[in-house]
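Example 5.3 — Ribulose-phosphate 3-epimerase
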Amino acid sequence: MIKLAPSILASDFNILGEQIRQIENAKAEYLHIDVMDGSFVPSISFGMPLIASIRKNSKLIFDVHLMVEEPIRYIKDFKEAGADIITVHTEACTHLHRTISLIKENGLKAGVALNPSTPLNSLEYIIRDLDMVLIMTVNPGFGGQSLIPATLSKIKDMKEMAIRTEASIDIEVDGGIMISNVDQVLQAGANVIVSGTSVFNGDITQNIVEFKKKFQQYNS
Ligand SMILES: O=C(CO)[C@@H](O)[C@H](O)COP(=O)(O)O
Ligand SMILES: [Fe+2]
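Solution (predicted structure tokens):
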């Protein structure tokens, strides 16, 4: 089943609650929440207080993408704020296995994200412990960038790796994904689609309908 994960980084924070309701009513599966620390990535976004606040009025699955150095320091805080899935960057973790174990001990789903230049073989000894791998299709840090074409073959290779290792993982893709190029990532094997700009620009409900139409042929 293909899932849509709208990224609130592209939302209008002045009416965030209302926009999340629209996403929920349009039946997106996840809410993608980009946390940036100004160190691992150049920009700073938001953190636990915002998540705790929107958690009160949403039943969506909170898919928290931590672009944070040594996220092991904050796993418990993000759980308490309301995260359901926590994805950490392999490049930001000195002790990746320990970090993933802590996410799981907290009863959450665990994901690992890879920057565009990070090879898949860094996952070889951890893949069976994961619920999700996030293949970044842009360099993390900002919304509204263009998908890097070389990441398409990486998604394919990830799918093959999951089959070869018999790992039952979701493959999430994130960055520059639009209605016009979503077929490419779906054909490559992704099944969780993050989209910020293309969901929030214009009519949110209609944009989600368009994404879901595209997903139909891959769901059979
Ligand atoms: O993690 C990130 C960026 O670092 C993403 O989740 C973006 O927020 C996606 O936004 P678009 O590229 O779809 O505008
Ligand atoms: Fe993200």
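Remark. The longest strand covers residues 30-36.
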